[in-house]
């Protein structure tokens, strides 16, 4: 993510997962998205990959 537009795209694509995603926090400066969800990690990753941005998990 390089701008708020990118951050909004991430939030928009994750919002399509509905109420299973309880929170999404983006930090453009650190290039990090924090997601709280009951969904499997794989589902979140596959959804984020739809933005065509590089995605990796940090625990």
TrEMBL record:
Coiled coil: none
PANTHER family: COPPER TRANSPORT PROTEIN ATOX1
Listed name of the protein: Copper transport protein ATOX1
GO biological process: copper ion transport
Domain HMA: start-end pairs: 1-56
Entry's family note: Belongs to the ATX1 family.
GO CC aspect terms: cytosol
Keyword Ion transport included in the entry's annotation: yes
CDD domains named in the record: HMA
Quaternary structure and interacting proteins, as annotated: Homodimer. Interacts with ATP7B. Interacts with ATP7A. Interacts (via dimer form) with SLC31A1 (via C-terminal domain); this interaction improves ATOX1 stability and controls intracellular Cu(I) levels.
Keywords noted in UniProt: Chaperone, Copper, Copper transport, Ion transport, Metal-binding, Transport
Species per Swiss-Prot/TrEMBL record: Taenia asiatica
GO molecular function per UniProt: copper chaperone activity; metal ion binding
Function: Binds and deliver cytosolic copper to the copper ATPase proteins. May be important in cellular antioxidant defense.
Annotated InterPro entries: Copper_transport_ATOX1-like, HMA_dom, HMA_dom_sf
Top-level taxon of the source organism: Eukaryota
Any Pfam family the entry gives: HMA
